[in-house]
Batch of 4 targets.
Target 1
Amino acid sequence: MADTLQVQCCIAGGGPAGMMLGYLLGRAGVNTVVLEKHADFLRDFRGDTVHPSTLMIMQELGLLEDFLKLPHSEIPALAVEIGGRTLKIAEFARVPTPCKFVALMPQWDFLNFLADRSRRFGSLRVMMSSQVTSLIEAAGRIEGVHATTAQGPIEIRADLVVGCDGRTSTVRTASGLVVHTLGSPIDVLWFRLSKKAGDPTQVLGRLGLNTMIVTIDRTDYWQCAFVIGKGGIGRVHADGLDAFKAAVADGARFLADRVDELKSFDDIKLLSVSVDRLTNWSKPGLLCIGDAAHAMSPVGGVGINLAIQDAVATANLLAAKLKAGTLQDDDLDLVRRRRLFPVKVVQGLQVAVHNRVLKPTVSSGGDRTLTVPWPLKILNANAWLRRWPAQFLGLGVRPEHVRSPESP
């Protein structure tokens, strides 16, 4: 017979949304459990860009100073390379935020940091190696979850279940909530290559006639993303590893002397890109946020930050009512109403970049002319204008501030 646990909030998924929401609810004194299916947070090629909006939240929580002691690199400005020409497009120096840079930090360090700081909250429990298998439903209301743990099966009864378990969310699938798919013409291949003295800095995207490569400075190595057409992984494998290494060397020439570090396709991980969102994020007793509510493209590196914004908004709107036992089913839709506009704006821009920039790159066959768009020329020529794309990327459309209570 399964063990039973009674809580006020059960959070499925220990990613950025789940751990931040768990931290905020624990801070507010809400009896909360976070279920993370893996034994640790150590997964490669997850979102590692911590934007100024998230750093501002860390400051509001009194965590920023210790957080920035963790190994990380800082990007104060962004540039792209198009056809060999470098263009400056964003500078964070004038953005009204405490941290005028994007921090690049392995996601597992970020999550471990939150987990460690969460231990001071007696009302919060983080359970590793614990995976939701199904929802408990009665009379049309979600009343908890069934889960597997390292110690065996468990039944968790909760006033609220929050799905934070990503784009392949078990909670979302089991809930029957309707997904609106926007589609994506691309997939991404992630890999890492060593970093050497004299390598270029601050240039993230490199666009050629037939290639798009993103190079992210991870301090002692480069985390690289190679864009391919949707479902094109079979063709990449058929062309062979040498052809792929040649394409990488052609797209980011400073990497040409180290592509042989890729020994097999086992060193290259596929991210199947999807862009979608739920038409409704909730039903009685259940709420989805983060990628479980809206899967984002890696374009702009905003996914982790939008998920954290969702978590902050959720705590702001629901924490006090959860603690008091006064939460109503209608309260859950307040989160969607608060967060839908920024999600729509970002997804709309991501889809535009997919269709107007990336799709022609990966499907043209080399029969097009590569030109620099005029907005990028203007940004490159005017430093004062580069504040605005930096502010959009760094703070987003509707930045959230911590307003949830802190339990004495």
Note: The longest strand covers residues 152-163.
Target 2
Amino acid sequence: MTTWEYTTIVITHGFMGRQSDELDRGKFQEELSRLGAEGWELATVFLGVNLHREKDGHVVVFKRRLD
């Protein structure tokens, strides 16, 4: 049986951006590449999530196989 582990990042307004409503695509791509190099694979994205005690945003879920 395959076993997975998961991690998430949250994208909010201003996440790695230069202004309050911008996304810095270059920095975001760097973060995605870093996660990919660590073996993480994009699993799904949940849009517009109301997060408990955190700034609301989009939740990006990654998974990787546990060996």
Note: The chain has a mean pLDDT of 86.
Target 3
Amino acid sequence: MAEPHESRIYYDLARFYDAVFGRAFVSHEHEVIDSLNLRPGQRVLEVGVGTGVSLDSFPPYVHLVGIDPSADMLARAVKRIEENRWKNIEVRQGDALALDFPDNSFDDVLTFHVISVVPDPQKMMAEMVRVCKPGGRIVIVNHFTSPNPIIYFLNSLINPITRHLGWTTRLRARDVMEGHNITIERFEPVARFSIHDLIIARKNA
């Protein structure tokens, strides 16, 4: 069984990703980015930028770096950047579990629908906190399993299938958020009736 980050959905099927997943996620990704009120001169990191479906919602006065392990995904992101002549955006290959940036490099660190895909979500969270500046924000949009034990059990039943496709249904928000030098400011559904949650945490000074 492939690890989530090795799934064919994220590599061999990259050319279908926008049609299958991008349309489902793009609207609330844009809404979240708009709500952040990013300021001129800020440095922002998107972990798991994929094909770049979120890129057009970032204002031109911030410097955005996007990383992703998939060269095929990044090729599509680069095409978006070139077609739109975005001078403030760069993308590169990178590992969410070992971010190739110094400590305290970014004002905000964002990730959309990625943390349940990597094999070690806690390590990914630790890396995002590490590269975020004190006082900066870590922003996560993802589906987390319910703390209700019955719903957790039901999610566990389909987990072998989703693991094969590339993600886990058993990830709990508390398992990701606990133990880090952060303060959670928002934890709520990303939209009404949405199965995805928005978490905004601020790195403590």
Note: Confidence is low (pLDDT under 50) at residues 1-7.
Target 4
Amino acid sequence: MRQKFNFFFLCFLLVLFAACTHENRKTEKRADPAPVLSIADTKRYNQLLSDLNELKADNCLKNASLGYFIIDITKQDKKTVIAQYDQTRAMMPASTLKLFVTAPALEIFGNPVIPEVTVTNQHSVNWRASKLLRKIGGKLYNHTTKDAGVQGILEFWKAKGLDTKGMYFEDGNGLSRNNAISPKQLVDALYIMTNSKYFLPFYESLPIAGLTGTLHKALRGTAAEGRVRAKTGTIAGVKSFAGYVKSVSGRELIFSIIVNDYTCRTKLIKKKLEAILLRMAEV
């Protein structure tokens, strides 16, 4: 009798193990896929990928941290990863952090806050971003404090399905070196906003390359002029960009790129990153 019991118990364990293994495999399939480009797309993005590889090997970034994430959303029902590098690494974002404050502000307060969000993103006004953060805290928790605002925006993004692991907000404007956001989190947030009823005012609040805001002098007279809308970020040793691109061939991209602890002049690293923005506009 004992041997018979042991036999059936062993069979039960084997079935349980197989079921768990199958469930793990199903879970793995649900994970974000690695970038798989068609032959046509590989040719299309070949120069961009080549330039990104050169950037990784650039002497300016020898002792720096670089992270980027770029996706193609031209087909509304399909999201294709074009390029990624250290995309989940939490990095100092500088003022691209403001995107995580201005987007929730639009959905929480609606049309009355559009002018304030536009000025904040266009000209990267730090005190306005901090004010919006506290305003969110006051609306959601009756406490117009930084901590209440931070709690509010984290809960907002979690509810939207954003993986907030590793994110940290010391402020609402990006000035603190303790802030931490990954390139993928920036892109995921921008992608989430494409399905928001406030996407248009959010999109239009971003500086336009060669024309408006903090990008008004950038890439003027190139293919990127009028085709790149992005939030910029700059503090000592940190340069970042995050936004949207509508390329000359009609491709629609979402991107983020962050550099921490570079040693060359900010003007030089800015030029190198803007060259990547131009390449995206040219695909």
Note: The chain has a mean pLDDT of 89.
